[in-house]
Amino acid sequence: MLWPEVEVRQRPTDAAAAPYVKSYVFMRFAIGVLGLALPVILVFLEPILFDGQPFPRGSLSAYYYSGMREIFTGMLCAIGVFLVIYKITERTREARVSTYAGLAVIVVALFPTGKPGAKVEPTPLQNLLGEGTVETIHFVFASIFISFLAVISYFFAKHRSERRLLHWLCTGAIGVALALAAYAGYTGDPDKGILYAEWIAVWAFAVSWLATVELDLIFGD
After folding, report:
1. Is 43 part of a structural domain of the chain?
2. What pTM was computed for the model?
């Protein structure tokens, strides 16, 4: 049930299905663009619109405690919902892992990382479960999410002939990002190492994801 056979299905060629296929492909394209845009929006737009701090925070998750909270949680939930449903009717490894990744990132969005200081008021969820518990859930599911992104990119590399080398490179980049995040979380070095790791992982997966999108169907004649 968890690991059925891998199958890459061809898109329908029926003319009646064309509008639905195009809409589906466009949504896949939009999710990839959201992945590319997420770290850029958080890091660069937040100081412009809100507190004016010239340097990025220690992680993407830390932007939960900024003026970008709604954008951060909204974009993560949008990505998560799409990952859950976009292949939910298929019984393939890629479909299952995508669903698990989507559920994991929704948990990441709803269970924030630890407060940046004692002056920050805890959320109702942190009051209910305890800040330490909520933060642990956040980190566990963030690790699960990034790991599943690596698995999806691996499936792209293994079972799609187009741009195979690119998918392998993206898979490797996500693996490096996981190692960097673990090292930075344990040692505190390098400065903002978790932010860099998250950024690398999100961009690597977004590139791998977009490389599977049939852009000719969206932008072609």
Report:
1. yes
2. 0.87
Cα–Cα dist 75/131, whole Å: 23
The total number of structural domains that make up the chain = 1
Please check whether residue 13 lies inside any domain of the structure: no
- The percent helix, strand, coil of the chain (3-state, each to 5) is 70, 0, 30
What is the Cβ-side half-sphere exposure of residue 221, based on CA atoms within 13 angstroms? 0
pLDDT tens digits along 150-177: 999 999 998 877 789 999 999 999 999 9
Distance between CA atoms of 9 and 7, rounded to whole angstroms?
6
The answer to whether residue 193 is domain-embedded is: yes
Is the Cα torsion angle 200, 206, 207, 208 positive or negative in sign? positive
Count of CB atoms situated within 10 Å of the CB of 26: 15
Q: What is the pLDDT of residue 146?
A: 95
Read off the tokens for 16. 């009646």
**Residue numbers of the domain that contains 91:** 19-115+125-219
* Residue 6 located in a structural domain: no
